[in-house]
Amino acid sequence: MADNPAHSIHDYLAEFDDIPGTRVYTAARARKGYWINQFAMSMMKPENRARFKQDERAYLDEWDISEEGKQALLRRDYNALLDLGGNIYFLSKLFSADGIPFAEACSTMTDQTWPEYRQMMLDGGRSPVGLRSIKGGY
Predict the structure, then answer these.
(1) Which CATH class is domain 25-122?
(2) Which of 2, 106, 112, 131 is the most exposed place for a label (fewest CB within 10 A)?
């Protein structure tokens, strides 16, 4: 970016959207997902987890979260939540409250089953070969 003065911070940040399967957590995402993340952090308190488990929708309705966000939370659609500005480390409070290990929850964000994802990670993770640019198709 420093080498090209015509290259703005907006151009730089837009490049993050070209990484397949990755959502870079930027300040814009943080602002967008503020209430989703505040809700997730509330899961750290046992009394809030109990209230949430008793009536998930009623508890979510106490938060200034869009209907789209509430539906994603109810479905445990972590990819949608990341798109809505959720932070994976904050969202981990939700899957912990559900009794799901971090890696298993991450497997739901892929096209693999939990056993397939686990084995892939034990074998060293994803291959560095493959799609690296959405726009470029390479």
Answers:
(1) mainly alpha
(2) 2
The model carries a pTM of 0.78
Sign, CA torsion 80/82/86/92: positive
Coil, helix or strand for 120? helix
Mind giving me the DSSP string for 3-35?
T-TTS-HHHHHHGGGGSTT-----HHHHHHTHH
49 membership: H or E segment, kind and range: helix 46-54
64-85 tens-digit pLDDT: 999 999 999 999 999 999 999 9
CB 69 within 8 A of CB 36: yes
Give the amino acid at 107. S
Q: How far apart, in whole angstroms, are the C-alpha atoms of residue 99 and residue 121?
A: 21
